[in-house]
Amino acid sequence: MPTPTVPHAAEQPSASPAVADEATTIATSVVTAFCRPTLDFQTWINGLYPYLSQTAAVAYETVNPARVPCTAVTGAARVRDGDGTFTVRVIVPTNGGDYSVYVHRTEVTGPWLVEQITPLAGE
Length: 123
Hints:
Elements: H1 17-34, H2 41-48, H3 54-60, E1 78-82, E2 87-94, E3 97-104, E4 113-119
Antiparallel strand pairs: 1-2, 2-3, 3-4
């Protein structure tokens, strides 16, 4: 059986303008909700829930918002990579550094949900 090859960056599918707009919009919204370290936990997590997948919601229930190092989005989000249809990684700049946000949907017409929000420097 042949070994599958990983496409080079230039061969990676790119997101259509509509997908890029949808993905960057949800990524910006979730990072805006995430970068609120002065909120109490319940208010903070309730602000994230509408954007998160079930798996991500469980994971982010373990985060102490007081330890989040950002307080604001500082620029336009941009698509970094992904399959262009179901999973897109978006970079969102904040005053605490850039954040990488993985957004995913299970159907072409399904809603985008956030799977992960991580500091880009930590990847």
